[in-house]
Design a protein that fits this description.
There is one protein chain. By secondary structure, the chain is α/β, with parallel strands linked by helices. It has three domains: 3-83, Arc Repressor Mutant, subunit A, CATH 1.10.10; 88-160 and 267-295, D-Maltodextrin-Binding Protein, domain 2 (3-Layer(aba) Sandwich), CATH 3.40.190; 162-265, D-Maltodextrin-Binding Protein, domain 2, CATH 3.40.190. It is built from twelve helices and eleven strands. The radius of gyration is 23 Å and the shape is elongated. The termini are far apart. InterPro entries: LysR_HTH_N, LysR_subst-bd, WH-like_DNA-bd_sf, WH_DNA-bd_sf. Belongs to the LysR transcriptional regulatory family. Pfam families: HTH_1, LysR_substrate.
Length: 299
């Protein structure tokens, strides 16, 4: 069995599509088919069945998939230990909510650059969607989320702390001039939310829905700095992590809305795929993230 055939098999088995696998792996679809056929000949067994347009793993395919993850993880580990390429070069892909990144990364990046000057670090906007698959396929090596929990058995989730999410608006806004307000009054005002911090956004939307409420109007904003600017100019209210809200208050740009029902507490989660090998660079980055989370005082 060739490792590249096993990688191709794992990708097809994960996506259940030869066409999608060809796009992810940048192979022609015919090459995907040839590799799977070669693996089936090696094993003298069929790995996939087709039923109409749908693809299914056979019993042999399901069993191979369990061993495939272990074999490829071991191969990655061996390659790193023998060649040390994981330390000298490459790219580390990290998915992080913009609001958390603004707090966690400034102190972390300088130390990381000193230790690994030749590693290219790629930071991507947060999304909980497709996270297990993206980590499994290596689209991302590491992810952070601000969420209550992540429900996926294939993920390795570490809690770095927790953070309070609070409603904020501009000084002089209706919401900040009337003292303590009920959740229904908050929901009746224009709401601005970032598209890049989807995890705690969903928590807030569930909170409103649980009380039978929906925002009177919702504006989605791509970019935390633009979002804060719009709120500071009175365009509506938003939800911010407490450390960021405190910074805006100290600058006189925002006020925390006195609505205890709207406050959320979410966990700061650091996530990898359970079956993926953690190279030396990734392990070092995770250690630095733990230290930085402690330094900035996550609860």
């Amino acid at each position: 069995m060739e490792l590249r055939h096993l990688r191709t098999f794992r990708t097809v088995a994960t996506l259940m599509s030869f066409n999608k696998a060809s796009k992810v792996l940048n192979y022609a679809q015919s090459s995907i088919s040839v590799q799977i056929q070669a693996l089936e000949r090696d094993l003298d067994n069929r790995l996939f069945d087709r039923r109409g347009k749908k693809l299914f793993l056979t019993d042999a395919g399901r069993e191979l998939l369990v061993y495939c993850d272990r074999l490829l993880a071991l191969a990655d580990e061996a390659r790193e230990r023998v060649t040390a390429q994981g330390v000298r070069q490459g790219t580390l892909n990290v998915r992080v909510p913009e609001s958390l990144g603004l707090m966690l990364l400034p102190g972390l990046l300088g130390r990381f650059r000193q230790s690994f000057p030749d590693i290219r670090l790629a930071l991507h906007a947060c999304s909980a969607e497709s996270l297990p698959r993206d980590l499994f396929e290596g689209v991302y090596d590491l992810a952070f989320l601000l969420a209550e929990s992540v429900d996926a058995a294939v993920l390795q989730v570490e809690r770095l702390g927790c953070m309070e999410i609070v409603p904020v608006a501009a000084p002089g806004h209706t919401l900040t001039d009337t003292g303590r307000i009920p959740l229904a009054m908050l929901a009746a005002q224009p709401l601005l939310l970032g598209t890049s911090d989807c995890s705690y956004r969903k928590s807030f939307e569930r909170l409103l829905a649980g009380e039978g409420l929906t925002p009177a109007s919702l504006t989605e904003v791509a970019g935390m700095e633009l979002l804060k600017r719009l709120v500071a100019e009175g365009a509506g209210y938003t939800m911010l992590p407490w450390p960021m809200a405190r910074e805006e208050m100290q600058a006189g740009r925002m006020v925390v809305v006195d609505c205890p029902e709207a406050r959320l507490e979410v966990a700061v989660l650091m996530i990898t795929h359970r079956d993926k090998w953690h190279c030396a660079v990734l392990r070092a980055f995770m250690d630095m993230a733990r230290q930085e989370a402690t330094r900035i005082g996550l609860l």
